[in-house]
User: Which sequence fits this backbone?
């Protein structure tokens, strides 16, 4: 079922990433490593390319140059492993309005994990949607829909999580709960890369800073103690 | 939360630790069928459109049985073609807008197989009902029994080809705001061979000729589309997702 991390200690290593969008350079010379047991926050103002960077890491965006390695080998040679071992939650998380939270979760995880209905049900109860399990999602609030998507994190087994604006529309308590969940996950050896506009109450974050000043596209990686980083 | 490894979350083997391709395909099919059943207008609109387009010809051109008997097969084929095209824009658009398509593209299974599942679901909710409705409309257009039977057979082989070819156009235009018209312009030229062979078969049957050759050619088109269209649609979807 599983294989230990071999050769390389990083899950994902990006070298000299450069991305241009609509004739504007979003970032250039961006290098960083994602190692197990770290939390990385991608920071930057609106339009600085945070979502684009996450989509590049997930393998959804091809408009970039540079090198991305996965577990020590070029990523494009092992897409199967990358897809199975990466969980990407975009700010549009694939929740259908006419389906119930349970049906949505079942459809979303069907191709990734064999998860029993009990586990899904428990996850929905845990995110506070117990009474809404069989209500079509279009009748739920934005925050509740977000909770449906985030319920996946309670049983997800992927070593790398990419979370784009995961905290949007959540109330204070839910934000705190997700932060606790992420901290636990990192302590257990998972890797999390996320974008968020609020300052998460988490220690030991690696930071990737995008977009410094108008007309001066730049990117840097701050050297927090937890992660191996190199300056672009 | 389940048990976890103390130090690092183990890497998962993409083959052994994920459900099989078949399971994933069935899940995609089931979701799409469930969505269609819940949103009945998606199911009914192409059918009503088909009925209305076909009803326009007796009203607009001529209600004579001689004209309708001659042109009926062509009218029904064009109606089915337009009805299929009308529903194509929805094939990927909603999934693209709500993020479902991203999640499907990131599944460990080959994308073209999951796309094939979506195309099958599309055909089951648009193409197949058109075929089922055809005998009724065929009688309305004074087609004889043999012609109606052959017409249904050609539509049964032809409408999946329409869905398959159309999926490539739908995948290419899904990221565009005004993709609908462009989609029609892209897809109609590719539909012409199917239309020619579809109506040609019915006409041959009407004049008493053997149609097995015609049907074999149409089946060959279906096989070709079945093999190539999902690959092309999957590649086009990746481009559309990459640009979004």
Assistant:
């Amino acid at each position: 079922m599983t294989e230990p991390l071999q050769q390389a200690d990083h899950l994902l290593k990006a070298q000299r990433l450069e991305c241009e969008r609509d004739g504007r350079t979003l970032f250039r010379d961006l290098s960083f490593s994602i190692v197990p047991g770290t939390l990385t926050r991608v920071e930057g103002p609106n339009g600085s390319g945070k979502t684009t960077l996450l989509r590049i890491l997930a393998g959804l965006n091809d408009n970039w140059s540079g090198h991305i390695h996965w577990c020590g080998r070029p990523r494009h040679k092992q897409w199967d492993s990358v897809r199975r071992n990466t969980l990407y939650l975009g700010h549009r998380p694939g929740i259908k309005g006419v389906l119930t939270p349970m049906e949505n979760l079942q459809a979303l995880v069907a191709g990734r994990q064999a998860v029993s209905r009990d586990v899904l049900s428990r996850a929905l109860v845990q995110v506070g949607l117990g009474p809404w399990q069989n209500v079509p999602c279009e009748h739920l609030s934005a925050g509740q829909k977000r909770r449906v998507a985030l319920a996946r994190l309670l049983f997800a087994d992927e070593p790398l999580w990419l979370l784009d604006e995961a905290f949007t529309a959540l109330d204070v308590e839910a934000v705190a709960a997700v932060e606790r969940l992420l901290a636990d996950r990192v302590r257990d050896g998972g890797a999390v890369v996320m974008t968020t506009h609020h300052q998460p109450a988490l220690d030991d974050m690696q930071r990737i800073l995008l977009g410094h000043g108008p007309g001066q596209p730049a990117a840097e990686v701050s050297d927090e103690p937890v992660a191996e980083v190199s300056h672009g | 939360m389940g048990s976890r490894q103390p130090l690092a979350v183990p890497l998962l083997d993409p083959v052994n630790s994920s459900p099989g391709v078949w399971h994933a395909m069935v899940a995609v099919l089931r979701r799409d069928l469930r969505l269609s059943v819940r949103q009945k207008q998606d199911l009914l609109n192409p059918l009503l459109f088909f009925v209305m387009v076909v009803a326009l010809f007796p009203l607009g051109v001529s209600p004579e049985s001689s004209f309708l008997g001659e042109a009926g097969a062509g009218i029904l084929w064009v109606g089915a073609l337009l009805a299929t095209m009308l529903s194509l824009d929805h094939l990927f658009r909603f999934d693209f807008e709500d993020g479902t398509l991203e999640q499907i593209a990131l599944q460990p299974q080959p994308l073209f197989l999951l796309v094939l599942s979506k195309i099958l679901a599309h055909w089951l909710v648009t193409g197949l009902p058109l075929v089922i409705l055809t005998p009724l409309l065929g009688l309305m257009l004074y087609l004889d029994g043999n012609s109606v039977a052959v017409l249904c057979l050609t539509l049964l082989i032809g409408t999946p080809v329409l869905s398959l070819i159309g999926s490539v156009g739908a995948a290419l235009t899904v990221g565009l705001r005004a993709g609908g018209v462009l989609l029609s312009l892209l897809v109609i030229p590719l539909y012409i061979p199917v239309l020619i062979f579809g109506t040609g078969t019915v006409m041959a049957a009407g004049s008493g000729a053997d149609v097995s050759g015609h049907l074999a050619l149409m089946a060959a088109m279906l096989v070709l589309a079945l093999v190539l269209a999902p690959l092309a649609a999957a590649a086009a979807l990746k481009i559309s997702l990459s640009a979004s």
About this structure: Confidence is low (pLDDT under 50) at residues 1-6 of chain B.
